[in-house]
Amino acid sequence: TVLVKCNTPRTAGIVMDQVRGALLDWANEWRTSVTPANVPEFRAELEPLLNTAATTMRLAEPFRVVLAGPPNVGKSSLLNALVGFDRSITLDMAGTTRDVLHANTVIAGLPIQFSDTAGIRDHAAVETIEREGMRQAQLAVGKADLLLLVCEPLPEGGYSEMPPHSPEMPKLRVLNKVDQKPKSSEYTDDLTNPFDASTNALTGEGLAELM
């Protein structure tokens, strides 16, 4: 039943290996041959298996990658650029995205569901429908496998505030609109840079590295 739900050749290939007993054969071989002398070799083979466990347990459903951040930092443009088509409406106006919008794609043979969320800002400054969009955004953040925390440079220096999130949540911090970064900026490509990737969704700069 898992095989028919696989959407990519890579995930289908992993399932076929499992069905044919690749992991069981590996375990049985080591069970009968492990000795104190070859324990380091056993551990060397075991480590990559453990590292890929999360992937092999999620072959029939996409990984949830949620874009979160303040309004107008380019989350919708970044989503469109990552999936290769205009899934989200983009306007230079806060509150354009009111609902959580999903778009599916494949990266490195793995199914990915990107989710574009409403910009998170001060509740007192928004109307009821945008406030509900922000609530839906926070729910999506809580269910994510990976967060893309999107910020933009500020004209006076620094960058927009990152949205609240659990410290334990896997995340990548993305500085979008990198072309607007002031030349005399505190966030340079050095050890003090708090970002994992710098992008320009409109020109494609940094997208390959992010993906």
Helix and strand arrangement:
Elements: H1 2-5, H2 9-19, H3 22-33, H4 39-51, H5 53-56, E1 63-68, H6 75-83, E2 101-107, E3 110-116, H7 128-142, E4 146-151, E5 171-175, E6 197-198, H8 207-210
Parallel strand pairs: 1-3, 1-4, 4-5, 5-6
Antiparallel strand pairs: 2-3
Describe the fold and architecture.
34% of the residues lie in helices and 16% in strands. It is of the alpha/beta class and 211 residues long. Strands 2-3-1-4-5-6 form a 6-stranded mixed β-sheet, sandwiched between helices. Strand 2 (101-107) and strand 3 (110-116) form a beta hairpin. It starts with a helix and ends with a helix.
> What is the global morphology?
elongated
- The side-by-side strand order for the widest beta sheet comes to 2-3-1-4-5-6
Work out the strand percent.
15-25%
Helix proportion range: 25-40%
Question: Average pLDDT value?
Answer: 80
- What value does the Rg take, in angstroms? 21 Å
How far apart lie the N and C ends?
Answer: 30 Å
Q: Main beta sheet: strand number and arrangement?
A: 6 strands, mixed
Uncertain parts: none
By secondary-structure content and strand pairing, the structural class works out as: alpha/beta
* Oligomeric category: single chain
**Count of alpha and pi helical runs:** 8
N-to-C SSE string, H for helix and E for strand: HHHHHEHEEHEEEH
In total, the number of strands is 6
